[in-house]
Design brief:
elongated; 6-stranded parallel β-sheet; 338 residues
Length: 338
């Protein structure tokens, strides 16, 4: 005979509600209590009937994830973390690729995209705060990234200004003074790029240097090709940089490729720092210094926000603005200047 919630509760010495919260991943449960309940679940071999539970609650067990580019290493790694964390909650993730198209983002946010999901995690590139505020979607939404939702939804993000300032300060500390920025996107409403540019400029001013617009290379997209084209333009200019802060690791890898082609020694003549902490950077030549956001924590905190809203829809807790930790992983591409 299969065990029931009340059997687990009796063994763990807690209420059935607490067991339910641990099983569903909702609510606030102390770590010690959660561990005790999990041990009881394992001992009794409790397996929830997820389909029946969702049916009774009028839920699908599906979570939507909308990202701009699935083929981007950063978003691919993040999606993998979200899928893994969702499986631990017995959720299935349905992934949509928006390509940063405003109509695609709008359809997903207002529910006209045809997906029946219990909640949505979305990384918006195209829509501004006012459009995010006007969404009519009646399921919980968690925003990833730097769009300010004006109280619309929970938001999980990295402090891009601080992270970019730290990356640029690292280059300054190694003796570099002509530091280029590859990644501004003035043609888009891209808050991430704007914040990374702000952090870059803050660090320069803090070191007594005025930002040089000739060293700020705008890009159309954030891929290796764009980084290569930007690096080519910088090397062909009258005065070459001695360092590059690239707004993504893909841009940095493109810049490294061109530096090697043109016989520019990295890091002796040119230091390079990226952003995102993708796996490819570890295997670059030399290995890429990069800002590493905690992708695992992004996934877990976003899903916890959804769980709290799904299982406690009447909660009066205001939308959360969660800042995720990051660190600078220093590798061979930014060694000390001679």
């Amino acid at each position: 005979m299969s065990s029931r919630l009340k059997d687990v509760a009796a063994l763990a010495g807690v209420s059935t509600r607490t067991v339910s919260n641990v099983v569903s991943g909702s609510g606030s449960v102390a770590e010690e209590t959660r561990a005790r309940v999990q041990a009881a679940l394992d001992e009794l071999g409790y397996r929830p009937n997820v389909a029946a539970r969702n049916l009774r609650a009028g839920r699908t067990g599906l979570i939507g994830l909308a990202i701009p580019e699935l083929y981007s290493p950063y978003f691919g790694e993040l999606a993998s973390q979200i899928v893994h964390a969702a499986q631990e909650r017995s959720w299935t993730v349905v992934i949509d690729q928006t390509f940063g198209d405003p109509d695609a983002e709008r359809r997903l946010l207002d529910g006209t995209g045809g997906r029946l999901v219990d909640g949505l995690i979305i990384s918006p590139w195209a829509l501004g705060p006012e459009e995010l505020t006007n969404t009519s979607r009646d399921v919980p939404v968690v925003l990833l990234g730097e769009r300010q939702p004006h109280g619309l939804a929970d938001r999980v993000a990295v402090d891009n200004v601080l992270a970019a300032e730290e990356a640029t300060s690292h280059l300054l500390a190694s003796g570099r003074r002509r530091i280029a920025a590859i990644g501004p996107q003035p043609h888009l409403r891209n808050e991430t790029a704007r914040q990374r540019l702000e952090g870059y400029r803050n660090a320069l001013r803090g070191a007594g240097l005025q930002p040089d617009r000739a060293l700020e290379q705008a890009v159309t997209t954030l891929h290796r090709k764009d980084g290569a084209e930007a690096m080519t333009a910088l090397l062909d200019a009258g005065t070459r940089p001695d360092a590059v802060f690239a707004f993504t690791d893909e841009l940095a890898l493109g810049a490294l490729h061109v530096a090697h082609q043109r016989g520019v020694s990295v890091p002796r003549e040119l230091a390079v720092v990226g952003f995102d902490g993708i796996e490819d950077g570890q295997y670059a030549n030399p290995p890429l210094t990069t800002v590493v956001p905690d992708k695992r924590q992004i996934a877990e905190r976003a899903l916890q926000c959804l769980a709290d809203r799904i299982y406690s829809p009447a909660s009066a807790v205001p939308p959360l603005d969660i800042v995720i930790p990051h660190h600078l992983e220093v590798r061979g591409s930014s060694a000390q200047a001679d």
